[in-house]
Specification:
The chain is of the alpha/beta class. It has two domains: 2-176, Histidine kinase-like ATPase, C-terminal domain (Heat Shock Protein 90), CATH 3.30.565.10; 184-317, Rossmann fold (3-Layer(aba) Sandwich). It is built from twelve helices and twelve strands. It has a five-stranded mixed sheet with strand order 2-4-5-7-6. The chain has a five-stranded parallel sheet with strand order 9-8-10-11-12, sandwiched between helices. The termini are far apart.
């Protein structure tokens, strides 16, 4: 609820900015839908998904916000469906020079929506009726936020539905298509990355959703990721395998991030030094100096920006690569 309110307030104030990074639509859909496997199994629902062959494998845009829309719509479909299943389909509507318009469809066999409510459900704090909120819960913000995000992506969202016969949510969004040609520096950097060993990253984060999202972000860039939920598990994992870099949440139950980092630095007095990045929602400028003083190599504030995250990792694990040294 709090995250929804913050997102909606940011959109209404015109302060939501979309990222512009490369991603794979099929991979995004697959990873997002896998997160619903437990709830689908619990309710005995089926899930079918299909990404058309003409959907470009490489796109540029904001995968996190696109994932947020997909999560909101599929979550509603699962919530309001008690038998049958969910179907997700992605197709390409149009492709012009450097652009691709995609259409997503999420169909369910749930309770459906009365005709009079098909427009209002995309307004803030609206659901089909008050009994829906009592029975199924929810803030009524998910679809409103999704609608605003898609407007920023040059698209829109709408629904076709009949009470008792399920719903089909459609939405479109426009993305850039990266050029297949790479400059000489880009090709050289890509060859360097292909020739070196995969980067092994350990994520220590107690919040399950944040841990999952951070892990997925890293895996999108082909990093090898292990995730733990507290400082004690972190110390145990460090003993079990070789790690190239650690992303350490500060506030964790039991042994927190500062204590875990101090213990690692104590052990490293006679051994190799592991880069550790402090990850926290505390955004005070003075905190960076504080965290560096207690043993961290860098500081990253939440909410995490993917490109900032990737650049920071590369600067610590492969310093100097891909930079202009002239």
């Amino acid at each position: 609820m709090l995250n929804g309110l913050l997102d909606f307030s940011k959109i209404e104030a015109g302060k939501m900015e979309l990222e512009d990074i490369e991603f794979s639509a099929p991979q995004l859909v697959d990873e997002t839908l896998r997160s619903f496997s437990g709830e689908l199994q619990r309710k005995g629902l089926t899930l079918q998904s299909h990404v058309d062959d003409d959907v470009p494998l490489r796109l540029r845009g904001d995968p996190l916000r696109l994932r947020q829309v997909l999560v909101n719509v599929v979550d509603n479909a699962v919530k309001f469906t008690s038998e049958g299943g969910i179907e997700v389909r992605v197709s390409r509507l149009d492709a012009s020079a450097g652009q691709a318009v995609l259409q997503f469809v999420v169909r369910d066999t749930g309770i459906g929506i009365p005709p009079v409510k098909r427009l209002s459900i995309f307004e803030a704090f609206e659901q089909a009726d008050s009994s829906t909120t009592r029975e199924y819960g929810g803030s009524g913000l998910g679809l409103a936020i999704s609608s605003r995000i898609l407007q920023l992506m040059g698209g829109r969202i709408w629904v076709e539905s009949e009470p008792g016969r399920g719903s089909s949510f459609y939405w479109t969004a426009s993305f850039a298509q990266p050029s297949l040609e790479k400059s000489t520096p880009e090709r050289n950097l890509e060859k360097a990355k292909e020739s070196r060993a995969p980067v092994r990253i350990l994520v220590a984060e107690d919040h399950e959703l944040s841990r999952t999202l951070l892990k997925k972000l890293l895996e999108m860039r082909d990093y090898h990721v292990t995730a733990v939920s507290n400082g004690s598990e972190f110390l145990e994992e460090i003993r079990r395998q070789t790690i190239d870099l650690v992303l350490m949440d500060i506030h964790m139950p039991g042994m927190d991030g500062v204590e875990a980092t101090a213990e690692i630095r104590r052990r490293e007095q006679a051994g190799p030094h592991i880069p550790i990045v402090a990850v926290t929602a505390d955004a005070a400028p003075s905190l960076r100096e504080h965290y560096l003083a207690v043993g961290f190599n860098e500081y990253l504030s939440k909410p995490i920006k993917p490109e900032e995250l990737y650049a920071l990792i590369e600067s610590l694990v492969h310093p100097g690569e891909g930079r202009d040294t002239a």
